[in-house]
Amino acid sequence: MYKYFGLILLFFGVNCSQYSEPTILKNINGYTFSDGELITFSTLVFKDGKVISVGDESLSEQHNGVEIDGGGKTLLPGLIDAHGHVMGLGVQELQVNLSGITSLEETLETIGDYAEANPDLEWILGRGWNQTLWPENEFPTAEDLDGVVEDRPVWLSRVDGHAAWGNSLAMQLGGISKDTPDPQGGKILRDNRGNATGIFIDAAEGYIQSVVPEMTETEYALALEKALEQMAKMGITSVHDAGVGVDAWNLYKNFADNGKMSTRIYAMISGAGETFDQLSQNGPIKSYANDLLALRSVKLYSDGALGSRGAALLAPYSDDPGNSGLLFVEQDEMNAMVSKVTGKGFQANIHAIGDAGNRQVLDAIEFAQNEYGDQGLRNRIEHAQIVSLEDIPRFKELNVIASMQPTHATSDKNMAITRVGLVRILGGYAWQKFLQQGTVVAAGSDFPVEHSNPFYGLYAAVTRTDHDGNPTGGWYPEESLTREQALRAFTLDAAYAAHQEEILGSLEPGKWADFIIIDQDYFEADDSQIWKINVLETWLAGEQVFKAE
To answer: What is the DSSP string of 344-397?
Structure first.
């Protein structure tokens, strides 16, 4: 029997799969789900990347192999982000990041500094601005940008990705004039003279986006490397990538084939059009490269976002009486898209934020099920943020998974009631209502819209407060999750939402040995400390892919 004491193997990142014997990780404070119930353990045994057993110290006597002393640290199953944007996360690292900035003045200063530091860039691109964080709480303008960068086009995506902000040169290159029409599912904001202000909502973004230079292959690969590094650092061992094109899928396969994929990716094909036609030719791909990749779902869109007032509501916005948001397509077209993808055996994962958007999606799923039956596809609504109370039971009736992001509630709390009022908000961010009726809730972050750290999401789910503890007692605290419910939403139920509960989501015999070691006990730490928990190590298939400095 090989014996290594302390954290020697862990700290030096030894690849334990090189040994023919099992690896025995002992003296740990482990938590996992077993047959759906939360259990604790002190010893984990794995071999060839998969779990053999969890239990007490007696497992050390039952198995001969490489022993590692875990030093009493807390161990959890690898965390699964059920809704992220992998390439968006990586691209953000290559562009100007405006996330979390609390004033227009500082936002403009950051843009100007970035432009000055990158004089060779043809375009100034970035993401993350959020006018609801600024004292002005108003959309910025092209004129604002012209004051800091006027010699190059500037194009900046809002934090939610459902609006973008350009300077005058960007609008000129995009051919924008008074006569440019609002496209279906989009809107150009205009001043009182009819001139475009520089803000483009949803489909209208395409006018400018179409003239933005494409990223090079080298830049694309670098963006993926940076995204993988970030996810491993955050303890994310699997992610459901919400919108993947042909180039991205081929890049993922290349990384997987060459041993460079450190996070599992459950990919959603982007849309039901040409991309789907090309990627679906051979049917759903349930597993590629030892479960590193899967391609068996499709990402569709019903509406926009609440912050940019693009989410489709059944009645006008409480703070904008003439505006009910935007449905991207008519009901017949949504019905056709859902029927098309589910008819070919693909899971439909549909973005819907407003109550009208959610109703449209539920109607489309019901239409498709009447045509093809349920098929066990586990169709999902992504976000399900504002849902009419009468529509919530339909999730259960139609076997629809609620794929929700806890940090959206704590980020949106300052504007959500303003947008929808005190009545509609009762169907907003309603995690507990879904769980109590038996609907599966799969948790994610929607990075880079929100931070990629899943402990931010676990904290938001449990406390319903921001990082300063506001509001005291939580925002609509009756919808808070228990710590066990929250962890399950980020592990076993997220795996279920990807048809992967038999291989991921818990450390049960036969499943992949995906786990993380953290610096605090998630179940014992004070509520206020959950978001501060740090990942010390991340392991994928029994191999260490991240170790903290």
So the answer is: TTPEEEEEE-SHHHHHHHHHHHHHHHHHH--TT---EEEE--B--TTTHHHHHH
Provide the β-strand partners of residue 442: 403
Topology of domain 1-78+506-549, per CATH?
A: Urease, subunit C; domain 1 (2.30.40)
For the segment 116-169, what is each residue's pLDDT rounded down to a tens digit? 998 888 999 999 999 999 998 999 999 999 999 999 999 999 988 889 999 999
Cα–Cα dist 46/51, whole Å: 4
Domain boundaries, the chain: 1-78+506-549, 86-209
* 62, 63, 506, 523 from 39: Cα distances, Å: 20, 21, 10, 12
Q: Does domain 86-209 have CATH number 3.10.310.70?
A: yes
| pLDDT per residue as tens digits for the range 265-282 | 999 999 999 999 999 999
pLDDT at 355: 98
Q: Are 161 and 88 a contacting pair, CB within 8 Å?
A: yes
Tokens of 230: 């970030």
Q: Do the bridges between strand 154-158 and strand 124-129 make them parallel or antiparallel, or are there none, so unpaired? A: parallel
Q: How far apart are CA 492 and CA 380, in angstroms?
A: 16
Does the pTM exceed 0.90? no
Q: Phi/psi at 40 (nearest 5 deg)?
A: -115, 160
Q: What is the largest CA-CA distance in the chain?
A: 81
